[in-house]
Amino acid sequence: MGADFKFVHCADLHLGCRFSGLAAADPVLARRLAEAAFRSFQRIVDLVRTEQADFLVIAGDIFDEGTETPRTRYRFAQELARTAVPCFLVRGNHDHVTSWEDSIPFPPNVTVFGPQPSTKTLDIRGHPVEVTGVSFPDLHTKTNLAAQLHGSPDRYTVAVVHCSVAGIAGSGAGYAPCQKNDLLGRGVNYWALGHIHKRQAILENSPWAVYPGNIQGLNPDETGPKGAYLVAVTRGQAVPEFRATQEVLWQNVDLDITGKTTLNELIDGIAIPRDSLLSLTVRGRGPLDRVIRADPAGFARQIADASGCTVAGPHLLCGPDLDPAVLMTAPTLAGETARVLPELQQLSEKELADLLLKTWKAADTATDTLRELAAAGRLRPLLEDAARDLLGRLTEGPQ
Amino acid sequence: MKITRVRIGSYGSLKDLNWVPALGLNVVYGPNEAGKTTLKEFLAGTLFPKPAPKYPAARNSDRGEITVTDCRSTAQVLVRDGKKAEGDGITAQCRIGGNEYRKIYALSPEDLRDTALIEKGEIRSRFLTIPGGNDLPAITKELDTERNSYLPDLRHSRNCIIAHDLAATEELRRREAELSSQDSAYTALSAAQAALDTREQETAAALQKSQQDLATARSAADRAGIQERLSTLQNREKELAPVARADRTAAATEQQLRNAAENTAGRAADAQRIRDTAAAPLTDSDPGAVIRHRAEIRDLQQQGPFHSALVRAQTAGNKTVPTGRGPGPLMLAAGLILLAVGLVLMFTADSTLALGLVGAGLVVVLAEILFLRHGRRKTPAPVPQDSVTLVRLEQQLDTVARAVGIPRRGFDADVECLGELLQKADALQAAESELAAARKQEQEAAGRLTLFLQGYGGADGFAAERKNYEELGQVRAKIEALSPSAGPADPSISTADPTAAQAALVLAQQTHRNAVQAAAANRQQLQDILGDQTLEDAISSCTAAEETLTADTAAWVRLAFEKLLLDRACTVAYRDHEPRVLADADRFLAVMTTDRYRLSRDPRGPTLAVTDTSTGETKDEKAWSSGLGDQVRLALKLGVALSLSAERPPLLLDDVLLTSDPARRRGAVAALKEAAAAVQIVYFTCDPSTRDLLREAGAQELALGETI
Fold first, then answer.
1. Which residues of A touch B187 (CB under 8 A)?
2. Which residue in A22, A332, A362 is closest to B155 by CB distance?
3. Is B181 helix (H, G, I), strand (E, B) or coil?
4. Residue A269 counted as domain residue
5. What pLDDT is stored for residue A219 in this prediction?
6. CA B53 – CA A330 distance, rounded (Å)
7. Segments forming the whole domain that contains residue A389
8. Which residues of B touch A362 (CB under 8 A)?
9. Has residue B603 got a pLDDT over 70?
């Protein structure tokens, strides 16, 4: 436990992953976004070198389905070699064992933990430091991988694992689930976790359990700085320090149309660093609802021109200027629309998808996409948006 | 509002008409020009004076009045006196204008077919939608158009947004898969690269061995050649061995002897020139005689001063010649001693004294030297005492002069001349002696050289031997240079064939070149794959296309949900707020068509439609026959008439069923009968069958063209 050392902890690189919610028509922007995760990882490698870290741990999801090409793997291998320190990797639910394993091997300083737990011991200036880890045995494992790891009590142990800690938002399908208690009393001083894209420390001190988050926000829900943790261990005590390395910063912008009558009133005053990616959400009730819905793309372009940023969206949560309480009792078609809405709101995602397919036979053309939308839980929000749009049309007339 | 009495004094062709219509269904029957339309216009124009009827033309003589009773049974008399009717008739009570009355209530066949007021005007928004659904047809059309642009409702289409998205996505996925499969070649290429690298190394080693084999073969061949050459040289060495004596030492000796011969010859030539130079002044004399008479000439020279003295004495009668003697050598010695003592004292004692002694010694020495140089001290010769001596001297001089060959000029001059001749003769003699010596040396040197060269057969022989000797040296040098290369004989390579080894080398070079090219080509393919971003761009394009497909599908989903919501809302709202007009119209149509046709009561549709209950088919206006269209419009106008005005002014129908077939006419009459229960109807016709039908339906008849 006497060693003073530093290491860098990152996870969920998703190298080569494309941005969702932003179908870039500009090929230059598209390529920049496709490179964003790589650029962020290059900065993490720079961090390892400039801070003279003793080793690097990567807790899974290095690539994305379909994005591990020879070039991405080759570049990743080159960056790992550039660290010039031991690198420890585990595989996550997005990491396939590909055919590039032999043709583009990782450099000698890289250790990829296999599906069975294993431990490597580093000699850091005369002091032993353990790094233990285990990879996903398959892409959708439900095994408690964290419970398979343990450390030696007489030396500092870093455990690397891609897992879902119960109760943490963003666990998704709950791959490799574990409880917070599974991380205690196992002789591990620092749990280097991966899988959750939101940066957070779920345990602090004795031991630390940290999700560093992904290294580059890839959709409008992943806003704010992204990067890695530089962990300095002094006399057995760890101090993790977050370092932002993202190439592109997602920013949330919420606009409220309530009480506003012109778009300029809405746009004026947006203060966002240029070259950011804006996740634009429009809320509130007012006459601008119809104006924006008439040309959402045009509205997004206006925001982009005014702010100098790229805009994803807009995500429309706005509606016409109607009092919901009054609407529910109004003897009008709009009121009736509001009253029949709950009937559809009670349906599940799957039921909504079935209803659409049953009502429109031709919709089977897009069955796969419909099912994907349902699986992503997007049909119910679309229903809410449909209600808002329809009420706007009924009360303020057609476009 | 019902008409209870009609009194016409004069209106158009009508005169003195007094009529009490039924409160329900009435038929006004009469032939053409009987005044039916005139009566209808009187009624319409009096009930609703504006706009004024255009037929018949108004006259000042127009007189008449209509008594009406409203829904509260309040009676009112509407008077027409002159060209205009008084007041505004029942406009205010009915809350409709004259135009609306004429379009809805007072109908001709043309008016029946005009439904614009219903479809496009306020009547529609008031009666043919549900509350708040004024824009329902436009909204419905808008939603349907938008939704169908994404996916047509009723059919699969490749010409819609989502179909285009799917096609584009599929194409990009195929492209991505194709490029990805090209990438899959990387693994095979990588494995192949290892084998190619090994092959390259193996062929390089084989090439190196071939090169070594060729070098060995060439070396062996060279060695054999060298050995042959060496043998030749050695033979030549043997041939030249005898000339070893003509070595450098011999060459040096020859050179020395030649140099000596040349030097002596040179000196002899110099001595010859000196001798010739010495002999040149003696061409007019006999140098030998001078030499032979050397003693006499010396004697004469010595006696010269005596001769002069004798001559002077003889001349002066003085027989003695003073002589003198000096200290000479003694003085010189004394001077040197003084000088030496002075120098010693200069270093050891009084310098003043030393300087004085040195000075004195220098003076003495210098004086002696000066005296000696000027010859003022001479040791005189013994002096002859008589003229015999003088004669002897003259005779001696004559003899010598004759012998030498100089003319006599005078004793002193001649003696001097002889002295000079003697010097020259001496010089000549010395030169000749030198010359003789030089010639001797020359001969000796030449002899030695000749003797030396004779040992080589002469100068040419020596030159030849020297040349051969040089060649021998070169041969030996070559032998020395080649000997290491000859090396010991190696039986194993004695049969090595450079030609075969060369051929093997060429083959090995080609094989290695091919291996290098193959490895480089494979390596380049690997680099090309690593450097080719086409797949990454394809992934981006595919992702973007999938995003577009998802976004467009989501857009369609939203529009589909809007339709579902709208349909459900309309169903419920229409059920709860069903327009009375449509319900009435539907009922009248059902009566007219004995339930065959029902009005499609979809308030969202832009036009009216009917449903054929026998087939379930819905027909819009374009699909109606003219008869069905008249039925539908009549039913609709009957329905509107019941709701447009709460007072329900009377319907005035001017033979609107004229073109209907009997069945339709019967159905229409049945509907009129039903409607008459709620609104007063006056049907004007010239058709007796229509009149009969109406009478059967209970209509009260007013016959025009008959005496009232």
1. 99-100, 102-103
2. A362
3. helix
4. yes
5. 79
6. 44
7. 324-394
8. 151-157
9. no
Question: How many angstroms separate the CA of residue A138 from the nearest CA in chain B?
Answer: 22
A70-103: b (≥16 Cβ within 10 Å) or e: bbbbbbbbebbeebebbbbbbbbbbbeebbbeeb
Quick check: is A170 in a domain?
yes
pLDDT in tens, B215-249: 888 878 877 888 888 889 999 989 888 877 778 88
A335 at interface of B, judged by CB pairs closer than 8 A: yes
Please report residues of B whose CB lies closer than 8 A to that of A20. 543, 547
Q: Which of B152, B541, B557 sits opposite A356 (nearest CB)?
A: B557
Question: Quick check: B561 and A386 CB within 8 A?
Answer: yes
- Determine the residue of chain A that is closest to B177 in CA distance: A66
Among residues A194, A228, A244, the one where a domain terminates is A244
Residue ending a domain, choose from A195, A218, A244? A244
Are residue A69 and residue A22 in the same domain, yes or no? Answer: yes
- Quote the percentage of chain B above a pLDDT of 70: 88
Chain B residues whose beta carbon lies within 8 Å of the beta carbon of residue A341: 565
Residues in A 74-103 with any Cβ partner in B closer than 8 A: 74, 99-100, 102-103
Residues A82 and A34 in one domain: yes
Cβ–Cβ gap B565/A330 under 8 Å: no
ipTM surpasses cut 0.90: no
pLDDT band of B324, cuts 50, 70, 90 = very low
Residue from B562, B567, B568, B571 whose CB has the most chain A CBs within 10 Å, to mutate: B562
The answer as to whether A9 is a domain residue is yes
Mean pLDDT within A363-387: 92
Which percentage of chain B shows pLDDT scores above 90?
30
Instruction: Establish if A317 touches chain B: CB-CB under 8 angstroms.
Output: no
**Inter-chain touch B143–A393, beta carbons under 8 Å:** yes
Q: Is residue A223 part of a domain?
A: yes
Based on the fold, state whether residues A211 and A263 are members of the same structural domain. no
User: pLDDT: is B187 or B672 the higher one?
Assistant: B672
Predicted confidence at residue A6, as pLDDT, reads 97
CA-based max dimension of chain A? 83
Spatial contact of B401 and B408, defined as CB atoms under 8 Å apart: yes
Rounded Cα distance, A386 and B141, in Å: 16
Per the structure, how many domains does chain A have? Answer: 3
Residues 210 through 229 of chain A touching chain B, CB cutoff 8 Å:
none
Q: Tell how strand A250-256 and strand A277-283 pair up.
A: parallel
Domain co-membership, A139 together with A217: yes
Q: What is the pLDDT of residues B173-185, one digit of tens each?
A: 999 888 888 777 7
Structure tokens at B658: 């004229």
What residue in B sits closest to A382 (Cα-Cα)? B558
Could you tell me which residues are beta bridge partners of residue B29?
B685, B703
Tell me: do A80 and A153 sit in the same domain: yes
- Give residue B564's identity as a one-letter amino acid code: L
Strand, helix or coil for residue B479: helix
Chain B hits for A22, Cβ within 8 Å: 547
pLDDT tens for each residue of B101-148: 888 888 888 888 877 766 665 666 666 666 666 677 788 888 999 999
State whether A110 and A64 are in the same domain: yes
What CA–CA distance (Å, rounded) separates B459 from B480? 31
The CA distance from B666 to B672, in Å, is 10
Give the type of residue at A78.
Q
User: SS3 of B93, please?
Assistant: helix
Same domain, A50 and A70: yes
Contact across the interface for A103 and B543, Cβ inside 8 Å: no
Q: Among positive and negative, which fits the CA dihedral A66, A72, A77, A82?
A: negative
Higher confidence at residue B227 or residue A81?
A: A81
CATH code of the domain covering residue A93: 3.60.21.10
- Whether residues A239 and A277 fall in one domain: no
- pLDDT tens track for A283-318: 999 989 988 998 888 898 888 888 888 887 788 999
